[in-house]
Amino acid sequence: MDKKALLTPRKTASQQRSRAMIEVLVEATARVLIKEGFDRANTNRIADEAGVSIGSLYQYFPSKEALVIAVIERHKSEMVDVLRGTLAKVAALPIDSAVRELVKTMIDAHRVNPDLHRVLVEETPRAGRIGTIDGFDREFYTLIRAYLELRKAELRPMDLDLAAYICVSSTEALTHGAVIDSPERLNDGNVQAFVNEVATLITRYLK
Amino acid sequence: MDKKALLTPRKTASQQRSRAMIEVLVEATARVLIKEGFDRANTNRIADEAGVSIGSLYQYFPSKEALVIAVIERHKSEMVDVLRGTLAKVAALPIDSAVRELVKTMIDAHRVNPDLHRVLVEETPRAGRIGTIDGFDREFYTLIRAYLELRKAELRPMDLDLAAYICVSSTEALTHGAVIDSPERLNDGNVQAFVNEVATLITRYLK
Amino acid sequence: MDKKALLTPRKTASQQRSRAMIEVLVEATARVLIKEGFDRANTNRIADEAGVSIGSLYQYFPSKEALVIAVIERHKSEMVDVLRGTLAKVAALPIDSAVRELVKTMIDAHRVNPDLHRVLVEETPRAGRIGTIDGFDREFYTLIRAYLELRKAELRPMDLDLAAYICVSSTEALTHGAVIDSPERLNDGNVQAFVNEVATLITRYLK
Amino acid sequence: MDKKALLTPRKTASQQRSRAMIEVLVEATARVLIKEGFDRANTNRIADEAGVSIGSLYQYFPSKEALVIAVIERHKSEMVDVLRGTLAKVAALPIDSAVRELVKTMIDAHRVNPDLHRVLVEETPRAGRIGTIDGFDREFYTLIRAYLELRKAELRPMDLDLAAYICVSSTEALTHGAVIDSPERLNDGNVQAFVNEVATLITRYLK
DNA sequence: AATGAATGAGCGTTCATTCAT
DNA sequence: AATGAATGAACGCTCATTCAT
């Protein structure tokens, strides 16, 4: 049997009903992951939480892993949505202000669902990849790469691919760490100092 | 019963024999993690790999989790050892060269056992913390914080705590990503370019 | 988690299927207890004997203990049923004949399933309580207490609670001992002598 | 291998040392049984409690069962000792007072070590037999049988074997129940009432 | 399509017992 | 004789998955 077949939803969400069911199941999985943690999240528990029979669950998702992957994907795209929104607004700004806005947005992205984010990154095997160039950073990277191209004139001469990688990876690491591991860094007055430093890091590097 | 009791080796490694057994078990656990992945690594398999009875395993480690934690600790301290070695040599250097050396060393640290590192970070619940200010970065952070204090005169005025955090987090994210996720970035000629960029990022930020 | 949850059947026997399954499992547990003894009776063996998967067993009973308790309860109620039947008939009789009938019935009650009774009393931890005022005697006690009240006029003046306790405890001990430990006392002609003596013991005490 | 060999102490207690060791182990087993219950009492725990290595334990007792049997035997003989003491004193008394004394003594016997007695009877497989004609009652029975013979003249004509059985079984059941299961029956003023009733039961039966 | 009862491989762990030292 | 490290059979139990209804 095809390994990939075990990791993707079984039906094209062509029908209204299917889509709703998938949504319900992914949502339930996320809730169970948050409430119980990865170890205690089992498919029967998830079917219960979704108010759906275990049989139906397996009609839409071929394995537990597929369910978790769907949660990861959904969470990633929610985070990316936040970023995309800002990038549209920011494209016209000069680097200094653009970077500041993007750093703030990265924080917001991690705040979309920090409880879920923590469970995924800390407890979920293979979902650690979330904050990785293979993970949601891939899309962020593409967006930033395009922005740098656009603003090339303001930058020192550099390998834009590498530069984008460095900006994305370090910003994601720093904002992730602040939101998830050291929330005290983002208390009230601290936010600005933190954002300043990260923005300084990136801006000085680029110019 | 003490929860912590389930996470630490059962016997003090006071005797020659005990220490050897612990070493054998931790080593076997690491090998199984690499060969089989976290999900397929179970205590019976580990005991087999160690050439030891399952009963002996439980005489030294009170749970599977304790075994994995021991592997994590050992791996972390091997990485920290690499860093510490370099830092001693580098303390006397000016920032530019010091940073370059440290970036190179961070790469080396991730190359100590990259297969194990990948399993621990990607598959092992709660070990995601490994590349985190709570994980092995803690020690790296302390070392760097001290270095910055030492070289304060060469730096722009800044909050050294925050600066150390930013240097450590971003350097670890970038070198980790390069070694584990994008090894092509470190092929032959690429290494220097990569090191240059990361060193530039950090150096410009500090000065 | 509720400790009690581990000792009671998991599903209400509301459905036909469930009730059948529970019956099959309790029956199998009793058979295994008799054939193998308590120590060798384990859940996998019981599931085998029941012709049911171990998973199904745990769908209906949350633990081995719960299974054994169910056997005990069923056995107790079978014994009590025997007693209750006789008591209804005997209520109208004067003490002498009533006591004789009850002693005979107590013997019958112990003969309902003496092999199981022996295992439960001799080998099963905490089931020793079976022949105890806390165990099935409780119901017998209630029945007898009511009978004594009814027949108060024929008795010497006495504390009926205490008297009922003494009648029940001693009759149960004597009939249990005879059936389970000294069956030769109940061979053919011996039965009558034995019943006579026990009836004499109780009757003289009461009048 | 001889099954019986697994149930008796390995060495004739010919040497001072051996006897002391056996004593220490039996004592430790009793303490562990009381403190932890039968299920949680394991041989390593017992060796610990005895301050002796597990190897030494197995030098003196061939199995866990042997250890528990030794505890049972010791406990039984302590209870019998109490009875024997009284019987000597009571042999000369007329039935009424003798029975009263013996009932009181039976209570005392159950109070020798009620915690241990409870664990043995309620939790220990096969030790439930303690309060049985095969258990410590056997010796009590012999003593009483002899007493009845001695006092035959005062009794109604009866089968002394059967009578002794009935006296012993019912007295043991009643006193056991009172001490172990319903201690409130023996609170202060209640003791006398209880003793009176049991003595009445037996005396009326015999005369 | 939907249900949920049933399955059973497989896991973590315990503990009576052995045996090299 | 004494030690205690080592053994491994065996057990209770979970949970992803299937399939008859």
What key attributes describe this structure?
71% helix, DNA-binding, 207 residues, 0% strand, homotetramer, Tetracycline Repressor, domain 2
Number of domains of chain A: 2
% residues in beta strands of chain A? under 5%
The tally of strands of chain A reads 0
What is the CATH domain class of the largest domain in chain A? Mainly Alpha
Tell me about the largest β-sheet of chain A: none
Helical content of chain A, roughly? over 70%
Please provide a brief summary of the model.
The first copy, chain A, contains 9 helices and no strands.
Descriptive account of the structure:
4 copies of one chain form a homotetramer. The first copy, chain A, is mainly α. Chain A folds into 2 domains: 4-62, Arc Repressor Mutant, subunit A; 72-206, Tetracycline Repressor, domain 2 (Orthogonal Bundle), CATH 1.10.357.10. Chain A contains 9 helices and no strands. Chain A has helices at 16-40, 43-50, 54-60, 64-90, 95-110, 114-123, 137-150, 160-181, 189-206. In chain A, α1 crosses α4 (64-90), α1 packs across α6 (114-123) and α4 runs antiparallel to α5 (95-110). The termini of chain A are far apart. The mean pLDDT of chain A is 90. Chain C binds a DNA duplex (21 and 21 nucleotides) through residues 17-18, 21, 42-44, 52-56, 58-59, 62-64.
